[in-house]
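Progress note, sequence design subtask.
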């Protein structure tokens, strides 16, 4: 049954923690994971139990957690990569001798990530052993994606690279700007944005750029696939919905500020947070505004739907404290009280 989220929504609970959340919360199986700038890794399993401190590093984390089938990967401000079991036990830790600048992808027993020096590296997921590295011509600040036996990542040298599991370049495509953010893939097509203000679709079988669409700002986005469409936010503070086959703009809508976070679909609704105090809700099919929710202080992560509850992270800069808010439909809370 498709979940339903209608506004207005109201707060039912919250979880407090020190520091600022690192970019986004991640839902995996029956848990939500997030890390803080204070070097802590948390998980939420049951909302009534709040957040469980899963692991404390003692060094500030600067990445969100990246989840594989068995492990959780993340890195700190000293460029240590941590591999943590789902029960919170440290499995291994290794230091990288350069600044890690991109996200971590895990697949086929390996992890992949990029550095500020333009090196794309692979390590053994079960041991932290170095496997190989390849050199690009710019910093790598994207989140890689693994498609079958190919790893795809973007680079500040304006290229998208396709490499095999041995680090050999299979194909590369050049855009007009930095390629950051993340990629989404469906039915032979890869979607991503560039700082040249275009959003791209690559046809994997034909090995060519199938279409690109001009936006009004840099595209450093976490695209989301809907039914026959792809959605993303550009740095002109506009949310776009495009036809996934030909790039036709189906609708667009303004949001209050720059979006640095993944967007979230809940049934027929799309939720967007930005560097503001407002979360916005739109109808995915039509783009119609379906409501907003105002928080105290500023939003600092993606909206996340978990156990029929909307999770939002807000940050109080003055006190260096964060909260995860638990929000539900107002009607449901009224029914509970009755």
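Output:
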């Amino acid at each position: 049954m498709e979940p339903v989220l209608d506004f207005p929504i109201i707060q039912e609970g919250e979880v407090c923690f020190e520091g600022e959340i690192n970019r986004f919360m991640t839902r995996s199986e029956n848990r939500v994971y997030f890390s803080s700038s204070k070097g802590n890794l948390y998980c939420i399993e049951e909302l009534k139990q709040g957040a469980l401190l899963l692991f404390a590093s003692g060094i500030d984390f600067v990445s969100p957690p990246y989840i594989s089938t068995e492990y959780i990967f993340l890195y700190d401000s000293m460029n240590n990569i941590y591999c943590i079991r789902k029960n919170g036990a440290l499995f291994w830790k290794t230091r990288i001798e350069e600044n890690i600048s991109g996200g971590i992808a895990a697949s086929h027993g390996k992890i992949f990530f990029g550095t500020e020096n333009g090196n794309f590296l692979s390590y053994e997921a079960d041991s932290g052993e170095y496997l190989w590295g390849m050199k690009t011509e710019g910093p790598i600040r994207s989140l890689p994606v693994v498609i079958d036996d190919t790893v795809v990542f973007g680079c500040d040298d304006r290229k998208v690279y396709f490499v095999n599991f041995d680090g050999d370049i299979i194909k590369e495509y050049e855009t007009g700007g930095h390629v950051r953010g993340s990629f989404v893939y469906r039915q032979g097509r890869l979607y991503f944005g560039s700082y040249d203000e275009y959003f791209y679709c690559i046809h994997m079988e034909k090995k060519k750029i199938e279409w690109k669409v001009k936006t009004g700002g840099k595209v450093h986005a976490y695209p989301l696939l809907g039914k026959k469409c792809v959605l993303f936010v550009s740095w002109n503070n506009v949310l776009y919905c495009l036809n996934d086959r030909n790039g036709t703009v189906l609708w667009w809508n303004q949001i209050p500020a720059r979006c640095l976070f993944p967007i979230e679909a809940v049934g027929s609704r799309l939720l967007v947070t930005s560097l503001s105090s407002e979360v916005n809700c739109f109808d995915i099919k039509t783009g119609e505004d379906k409501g907003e929710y105002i928080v105290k202080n500023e939003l600092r992560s993606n909206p996340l739907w978990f156990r029929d509850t909307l999770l939002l992270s807000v940050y109080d800069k003055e006190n260096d404290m964060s909260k995860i808010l638990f929000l539900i439909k107002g009607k449901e809370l009224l029914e509970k009280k009755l």
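The chain has a mean pLDDT of 95. Work on this subtask will continue into the next period as scheduled.
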